[in-house]
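re: ur question from yesterday

yeah so i grabbed the chain u mentioned. its 479 aa long if i counted rite. heres the sequnce exactly as i have it in my notes:
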Amino acid sequence: MNAPFVMPALGPILPELVLAVGALVLVLIGALRGEKSYGLVNGLAFVVLALAAAALVAQPAGKVLVFGDSFSVDGFARIMKAIALLGSAVALVLSVDYLRRENLTRFEYPILIVLATLGMMMMISANDLIALYLGLELQSLAAYVIAAIHRDNVRSSEAGLKYFVLGALSSGMLLYGSSLVYGFAGTVSFPGIAAALQGQSSLGVILGLVFVSAGLAFKISAVPFHMWTPDVYEGAPTPVAAFFAAAPKVAAMAMTVRIFIVAFPGIVGDWRQIVVFISIASMALGAFAAIGQRNIKRLMAYSSIGHVGFALVGLAAGTAQGVNGVIVYMAIYVVMTLGTFAIILGMRRGDTYVETIDDLAGLSRSQPFMAYAFGAILFSLTGIPPLAGFFAKFYVFAAAIEAKLFALAVIGVVTSVVSAYYYLRIVKIMFFDEPAQSFSPLTPALKTVIAVSTIAIALFWLAPAPLVSAANAAARSLF
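ran it thru and got these structure tokens back, copy pasting raw so excuse formatting
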């Protein structure tokens, strides 16, 4: 006779419960008050995210497994959830003025952000293939709607449709790969899969792993499953693109790391080949395809593809040091990305938002704060010391060298040099070209996000220990 299901203590799942209950309450408020409730719902959504972060911080250290060991709360999950919550909260802040000016103040938007964040939290803590798929679909379904939230805009509708069709295809590939792994390993649990394989892979498991990797590559927008990223970033409203570039990417990367490290630790040699290929292809495409871009959002899409490739360099090492590098990289990447999109949202003349890089001409003379902040962020994205972006790349390259992946590290450095061209080209346009028409003054919210991200990037070298130590402890919790 089966043992009765026992409800676990609420402590390990309290952040997720806060998000779930909060989303239901916000739906009720929106339904009762109608479209005029956007301001209230948006403010409460930010409070819900803050409460979830507080519940996350209050959790005791150590590893806890609940729901039949399908949900893992450990150091790695906590730090990646914290980064994802930060990305979601800042994306909400960046959305307020844009949505008001574009007449998109629908109460559904912040609710969908909260639901997508709930799916991300589930993805990060998933300890078996079924829990992972549930979290992934919850996050993806909300994201599809957010991408097409501007219903009267053809580009936004097209972005949502492309994201949905290609996302459904990738989910099917992930599900098929999961079924193959289950068929040959006899379990969906990550530790169970690791125990069943015991360092000996079969052709069926490798085939399943290839399909799983394809699904994961889509979610992190890595080559060769990146095709949706430029179109969705360009077509979706700018705050939505900022959200996609930050929080969901962190969750997808965390999910990828957990699958490879926890479920397949004994066959590192097999999956490392896949990760190395995806990493090199992403770094190369991100470096070369962005050179000809004139739309700043499309350029940031290719930039994000390249940065995913750099983060995967750490995963390819397959060591605690490599996972540490991935965590540090994603944390710094989110700060740089949010600062960049805050500046893109500041590219406004009256109520008209512009997106071409040439519109930044002579920005240093008309709005020096914006120009110098963007310059610092671009130098950091390039990886120039002593800015935070240099340390992000340093940690993943160091892990690759430690794992004797010398060619991968060299290719990473070369593509960094290539990518410097299109980052520094923007700096040249801002500081040396003839001024274009100046932008409208920045809102207090945009000023705050730009200032905080720039300070964090510029002064990271003074106190890197808190993030690096926390990432190191989080990485060890997976091994």
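noticed a couple things. Residues 317 and 400 are 5 Å apart (CA to CA). also The mean pLDDT is 90.
anyway ttyl
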